[in-house]
Write the structure tokens for this entry.
Amino acid sequence: MSEEFDDDSFGILSPEEMKNIQEEYRKQKLKETLTGPIISTFIHVLLIIGASFFKGETKPPNANVEVTQKMEEVVEEPPPPPPPPPPPPEPEMNEQAETINPEITEVVDVTEDTATEVDEITDEPPAAEVFDEVELMSDVKPSTSPLTSAKMFSSRSPNAKANAVRKYGGSSGAQKALGNALNWLAKNQNPDGTWGQGHPEAMTSLAILTFLAHGETGKSKNYGKVVSSGIANLVKWGNSGNFPIGRNKTRNVYEHALVAYALSEAFAMTGSYSIKPAMNKTIKFICDKQHENGGYMYGYATKGDSNFSNACWNWQAMKAAKVAGCDVEELPGAIEKSIAHMKKFATSTGFYYRLQSKDKRDPSMRAVGVLCMQLLGAQDDPICRRLGDIMIKEDLKLLGWNHHGSVTKPAAFYLYWMYYMTQAMFQRGGSDWKSWNNLFQKHLLENQHPDGYWNSPAKGVETDRFSMADIDDKVYSTTLCALQLTVYYRYLPSSVIKKSSGKASTAKAQKVNSGEEVIDIF
């Protein structure tokens, strides 16, 4: 049995053989374990050595590109713009001005005195109903004229008005009366923005001139819509080309001139270029239709007789247009002809009414001529000074609220005469102005209707004729009276302009001495 089970037959290894086999196994395992890392290490070393010899292409840095880590992108909105700075406070009133006129015991601040705050001017936009034809508040571009409106109309600002009223002797009661008149005019404006019935073109012009004289424009808090709608009608008439403007085919020499006058002041006050074309058209017509002798005549006749009263509103319109920056080429020459006309036809006592008439010179035409010479730059002419002396010596006694008689009587057109007299005396200044100022305010205060309007005492002469009845009479009378009460600040007196200009250059001094205008009073 032992022979059948031999150790070799079953492959049983000896201990020495088993030990050799185990040694070989460990060597093989160690070799397999170390071969992979050694090869990997060798390859990485070769790569590093190869990279050290490789020169890649480098790009310059882009200064405009900011590399940020895009995690969760947060967009931060810019902060809102800061609010505009508050407007500067109004300048303090000149304390010295309160003692300039000791005769006025009660002084009014025209920005606060009236119950209706009639002269508060704000920068608020006008009412939405402003007429599209005017666009007074949009695209305002002030005039580039060397005679800038800022200088000519600077006294119409609220604080300047208050100082002017104090300085030149305006009373508190008179300024309240003016506020009542403005309120009455505003309430009696027609729904279409005009005034009056028989002569709406003339009445609307006079009303707008009154509001503008008080510093009111389309921006005014209380009267913005009133002024804007009125100017819209003026622009419409001026752009129509249906000249001369007005319903009466001969007396429209007054109406057309008044429309041109109001348009010119409106442009000077607002700088709105939507007004300028209408102003230029109406002024060009006035220049083209000037009488060959430098005056004007009914129906704008250019030959034969001429009428001094016809000329006065046309001359005032010319001056307003010049100040406003009107660029009608004929305007400067027309003004020169106007001044020459007044100098040529002045007499020792005044000016004619109808050139071919030999009647005595009327106080009304004397006042008209003196004021127009002052406005057009001839205030220092000996003729102007001499006739002004007559006015204060002889015409002052005509100041009385009464019917002066027929059309041939002195100052028969009472408010017409009074309107020119007040302005002419103010321009003269000094004791002449004080003498007139102490009286005319009193007359206006005593004769104003409780509702705020006036009616001329010259019924049948000055009013109630030529389609003027009731509302036209009231608008005409009220505007002429109200305009007198704005005299303190409507146009600076020529003496103030000269004083404020300082030492003039030789060229300017020569122009003044020669009667040529530099910057005067309108």
